Amino acid sequence: MSVLFSEGFLGGLRLENRLVVSPMCQYSAVDGIAQPWHLVHLGQMMISGAGLVIVEATAVEPQGLGTRGDMGLYDDAQESALSELVGNLRTLSSAKIGIQLTHTGRKAATRTIPERWRGEPLPPEEGPWKPLAPSALAFDEGWQTPQELDETGIRRIIDAFARSAERAVRAGFDLVEIHGAHGYLIHEFLSPITNRRTDDWGGTIEKRNRFACEVAKAVRKVWPRERALGFRLNSTDWHPDGSTLEDALALAAELKSIGVDYVVMSSGNIAPGIRIPPATPGHQVAFAASVRKQIGMTAMAVGMILDPHQAEAIIASGDADFVALARPFLDNPRWGLHAAAALGDDIAYPPQYIRARPNNWLGFSHVHPHSRAPATRLQLDRPRSVSSWDRPNSA
């Protein structure tokens, strides 16, 4: 068996393999409530072959919504919808299910990506809500100047993360991931580009890290130890005045001491106009390797991981413990199943699709000529996943 499809652990949570579906906003919620689209989308991800599926960035309070189509987890109706969603997803596979909690900070009140690819602030006539931030600095020209948070507001949002985590417990999620990257509120506190405060929440790196750490502590307090707690971390702002990898490693060490089980190492997006190196396959893997090797913390690599052999090499080399993919799963919702075949692994298939399993379909090697698992190389054994009517089928 490949290392990509070997079991792995996030804290006390056991995963069948080391392949993760990264959170992907669908901009399809109504009043923050999950809709049928979410079941269709996430249902596909549950039968993709991944060991963990993480639900999209979900706001912890109304002002934390990025768009009107964002998911929320701050009221009973949202919790009820997500509880039903998780229950339905559990019937589809044994993959674990997580959710990412966020507050978009100064990036709130924008159009959705389908409306305009890069997003843009909602105009006054469309009733935008007031963004919040550590400092009153607009994201870009034409964007709202956010309200600078006072002590009361900061404490309210920390508590909101904890309350949303409690709702996630009741909804049945296996994992919570705190979003501390991509220019959203937690990242805004971390970066000197966006945090100009001179009180106990800004200035030195210790003070800039304080908000992230307080959020992590609050969530850890209410999140069961047998379920996993993660943190998506910005590795660098790609700007001489911004946060650096050294800053990220210092924060990762603090998060580890708090009880965070893993980090996902991303980068960039703190402000427009910053020159970022072109994205190439695996361009952020080195960040995961740094935190894993220097801090000794479980690390998840993300960013342009496109090929099964590339993913396998990342795990085999020790650069990361897990790999998280987003757009590859949108492009091919069976990415994990095909990756297993390419690596020569025979993993469980959904019973309904068993006739397309590599060793049950002679056509597989023709459709996937680079696979190491054509029907002629695998024993035509009884499918692991179960069904009395399943038989090898050459159709």
Oligomer: single chain
Structural class: alpha/beta
Write down the Rg.
Answer: 21 Å
Tally of domains: 2
Strand order of the largest sheet: 3-4-6-9-10-11-12-13
Bin the helical content.
Answer: 25-40%
Helix count equals 11
**How many angstroms does the end-to-end distance come to?**
27 Å
Which outline best applies?
globular
The tally of strands reads 13
- The CATH topology of the largest domain is given as TIM Barrel
CATH superfamily of the largest domain, by name, is: Aldolase class I
Order of helices and strands: EEEHEEHEEEHEHHEHEHEHEHHH
- The second-level CATH architecture of the largest domain is Alpha-Beta Barrel
The CATH C-level name of the largest domain is: Alpha Beta
Q: State which percent range the strand residues make up.
A: 5-15%
Q: Mean pLDDT, as a whole number?
A: 92
Low-confidence stretches: 374-395
Largest sheet: 8 strands, parallel, barrel
Walk me through the structure.
The chain has 395 residues and is an alpha/beta fold. The protein folds into 2 domains: 8-347, Aldolase class I (TIM Barrel, Alpha-Beta Barrel); 350-395, no CATH class. Helices cover 31% and strands 14% of the residues. The protein is built from 11 helices and 13 strands. It has an 8-stranded parallel beta barrel with strand order 3-4-6-9-10-11-12-13, surrounded by 7 helices. Helix 1 links the parallel strand 3 and strand 4. The radius of gyration is 21 Å and the shape is globular.
What is the structure about, briefly put?
It comes from Aquibium pacificus. The protein is of the alpha/beta class. The chain is 31% helix and 14% strand.
